[in-house]
Amino acid sequence: MSEFRHLDTTEPAQMGTVAEAVVRLSTFSERQILDLVSGGQLGELFPFRPKAQTLPPDSVAEEDLEEASTLPMTRDQKAALIQSSMPSSSASVRNNRLADALAWQEEVLRSADEDSHR
Prior knowledge:
Blueprint: E1 5-6, H1 12-26, H2 30-38, H3 42-45, E2 48-49, H4 75-84, H5 91-116
Parallel strand pairs: 1-2
């Protein structure tokens, strides 16, 4: 694989070079780009990469996987799943919104149930 250069977005000349490379890539078909990537040649046309970033792992070890249940999820399970997928920085605000939404939904269901029994 080709060597990649780190991007410095504060340098206008480098950004111009990146823009030229993007425009050049845009002339290729999807198939041609996939062939370039598969052949390890994309770096020849686009030799840039962002500065090192820490990315969260996007995979889970196979032994940590669990088979999904065929039973439908409860509201609490859905809420917990939604909550676990949210970024931690804004989780408390979203948690409050989610709790409000669930409380409203339960109230609507309760009043609809009461109306049907009258």
